[in-house]
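haha ok so turns out i had the wrong file open the whole time. this is the CORRECT one, sorry everyone. sequence first:
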Amino acid sequence: MSHARPTSNYVGKYVRLGRIMPDGRSVIFAFDHGVEHGPKDFTEESIDPRNILSKVVKSGVDAILVLHGIAKATYDIWGNKAALILKVTGKTMLRPEEGRYLQSVFGSVEDAVAMGAEAVAATVYWGSQYEDVMLRNWFAVREAAEKYGMPCLQLAYPRNPQMKNIYDVEIVRYGARAASESGADMIKTYYTGSRETFAEVVKAAAGVPVLMSGGPKTQDIKEFLVQVKNVMDAGASGVVVGRNVFQHKNPEGVIKAIKEIVHEGKGPDEVLQYVK
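then structure:
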């Protein structure tokens, strides 16, 4: 029996995923913190996105994950050098607390296509009282992206006011499974604290590539590099890093060190020279 020829959007998705994950793995730099946390997260240097993105792109990051305005302000820096993943949801910390478990629409798939992006990203706070609203957004994004053969990265973050520990492996793997079942092409989620527990998260994702969310800046960069190695050993497909890069005095070195762990399988001690 002859194989059916692939559809155009299947081919598009395959090609674009290959640009984000050249060897099936990826180091993605996230820079959406100006909206999600406010300018307080930035150093004097990194408040200007052109400063930090120049360094990160130069050090060979696979992709950048940003919102529409930052993508526009820096297109000459990342264009044809790093894959663009356009984030199309967001929320600010200026909202009343009870509204912070909802991500709002912050762009469109059409924006992403127009700008030459390789993928779109949207957040779902699984377990939130607004889960239903975010799922409606997610499925609208996924359906539009499907037409253009564009992969969807889901930021799968279980979160609600009653949740005691969002890093608990049972909660994180539940979110990863829900992301997989809702049609995500890639999943970004929390680090659960060890290689063994993160392997459970990867398993629950049922074959969808899982990327670790970099989270808050660690006290010691080696501690972060150990986390990166743990998740890769657990079967993850890479990492999405932000604060551990742009709050560090040597952002290029951090990216180089992470790349060696993710793409070359090196250990933290072997790559520490980059961040000295």
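The beta strands are 26-30, 63-66, 83-87, 89-90, 104-105, 119-124, 152-156, 186-189, 210-213, 238-241.
again sry for the mixup
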